[in-house]
Write a structure and sequence with these properties.
The chain is α+β, with helices and mostly antiparallel strands and 432 residues long. It has three domains: 93 residues, Rossmann fold (3-Layer(aba) Sandwich); 67 residues, Dna Ligase, domain 1 (2-Layer Sandwich); 230 residues, D-amino Acid Aminotransferase, Chain A, domain 1 (2-Layer Sandwich), CATH 3.30.470. It is 31% helix and 27% strand. The protein has 14 helices and 24 strands. α8 packs antiparallel against α9. It binds adenosine monophosphate and glycine.
Length: 432
């Protein structure tokens, strides 16, 4: 049996672990904390610093691993995939150089501009001595997104009308980022509905997953601070109720273009490419790329996959695409009280025996100690419902929240008919 080493220990990695085992591989885990969901599926695991490439390689070599999958972005930025590849172990994750698509928003936006992948908002990148130019750019645009260029766990971007009240606050925030990082990205604020398209890549071909919509805002009705994502849903037929065929084709076309231009200058992309898109009045635009599965979006797509994606990537056979069960899914994250700003550690107890058949649980930023589960500073437990419709899947996920105890909260509105209708009305209004 082939051995897969999985690096990471969030809910996304719990879903990857489940899929690895489902397709008949022996799973090994390298984690920074003991994730009870992953531990259950592993033959063996090691707790350590997942950013330490040397430790990852030594573990993989000791096991004689047939391939390595890296779940989160931070090890990609730390060059873990490069070290794995140097040791001639196949890695289903891109190199550090290619992962700049995610780890440097400057790289990603400049790549799109240079290669005329014309699905980006107006943007400028400013260095520390350009604060006057920053102010002028913000004055000209008024409504902006202010972004650190590096990784911030989804919590660094602030947008006027959401986390920023006006252009003056945008200037203040841009100034803070400049002081800290010596560089800031300012973009025109785009108006529309966001969606995620993830695709598997084997270096040549790309196989898309069902579309997903994530919910970044901490609180119901899309208010509050940005989070890593509070929950997500997907629909039957790979689509979403507010996305047109043209939107879908354009989004997929953008991913294909990116893979092709990267191949020319930076190498073949192997792993998962994630596009965050926004459907606007002027068509689809790219918000950002990620070099890995989304979290929670991985949870919506991986349980539905029918083909052995690991084998297809390793054998470079993705040209025939990948099949998914034709179902809808809803994922809800339970997060510690006070998250994301002042999360409070809590003990968590779960009664999995009460969950129904079409309900799944994935453990996120929790750890197990003496048989007890505790939350940390971030999202704790993800609950997934799978059904024929989004509405039914929502009810399943919501019902499961009753069987998880702890000082946690979640968004009840994700996947409800009311929220989906709001999305549909929003896009109609924008595009009328
Ligand atoms: P990012 O970290 O780039 O995904 O940004 C986090 C969130 O900020 C996105 O999911 C969007 O909701 C929002 N955002 C980022 N860029 C823009 C933009 N140009 N216009 C409007 N909203 C944006
Ligand atoms: N769901 C957002 C992300 O994974 O970056």
């Amino acid at each position: 049996m082939q051995k897969i080493l999985l690096i990471g220990n969030g809910a996304r990695e719990n879903a990857i672990a489940e899929s690895v085992v489902k397709f008949g591989y022996e799973l090994y885990g390298f984690m920074s904390a003991k994730n009870p969901g992953i531990v259950k599926l592993c033959r063996e695991y090691k707790i350590g610093n997942i950013l330490d490439a040397e430790s990852a390689v030594n573990f993989a070599k000791g096991l004689n691993a047939d391939a390595v999958i890296i779940g989160p972005e931070a090890p990609l930025a730390a060059g873990v995939s490069d070290k794995i590849l140097e040791n001639e172990i196949p890695c289903i994750s891109p190199t550090k150089c290619l992962a700049r698509l995610e780890t440097s928003k400057e790289f990603a936006r400049n790549l799109m501009k240079e290669y005329h992948i014309n699905a980006y908002p107006k943007f400028e990148i400013f260095k520390s001595d350009e604060i006057k130019e920053v102010f002028k750019f913000i004055d000209d645009l008024q409504d902006v997104a202010v972004k650190p260029i590096g990784l911030t766990g989804g919590k660094g971007v602030k947008v006027t009308g959401k986390q920023l009240n006006n252009a003056e606050e945008a200037k203040t925030y841009a100034g803070e980022i400049l002081k800290k990082d010596n560089v800031v990205l300012i973009e025109e604020k785009l108006e529309g509905e966001e969606f995620t398209l993830q695709a598997f890549c084997d270096g040549e071909n790309l196989a898309p997953c069902p579309l997903v919509q994530d919910h970044k805002s901490a609180y119901e009705n899309d208010v509050g601070p940005n989070t890593g994502g509070m929950g997500s849903y997907s629909d039957k037929n790979l689509m979403l109720p507010f996305v047109t065929r043209t939107d879908y084709e354009d989004a997929l076309g953008n991913l294909k273009k990116v893979i092709n231009v990267l191949k020319k200058d930076y190498g073949k992309y192997i792993g998962i490419l994630y596009g965050q898109f926004i459907a606007t009045k002027d068509g689809v635009k790219v918000i950002e790329f990620n070099a890995r599965f989304g979290d929670p979006e991985a949870l919506n797509v991986l349980p539905l996959i029918k083909d052995n994606w690991i084998e297809k990537i390793l054998d470079k056979k993705l040209s025939s695409g990948l099949k998914f069960e034709n179902k809808a899914t809803v994922c809800k994250y339970l997060v510690p009280a006070g998250y994301p700003e002042n999360p409070v550690k809590t003990e968590i107890s779960v009664d999995e025996s009460k969950f129904g058949n079409n309900s799944k649980i994935y453990y996120a930023n929790v750890y197990e100690e003496n048989g007890k589960i505790f939350s940390t500073h971030s999202r704790a437990i993800a609950l997934l419902g799978i059904a024929e419709t989004i509405e039914e899947a929502e009810k399943i996920a919501e019902n499961s929240t009753k069987f998880v105890k702890g000082n946690l909260y979640h968004r009840k509105d994700i996947g409800t008919k009311e929220l989906i209708n709001k999305r549909i009305e929003h896009i109609k209004k924008i595009r009328k």
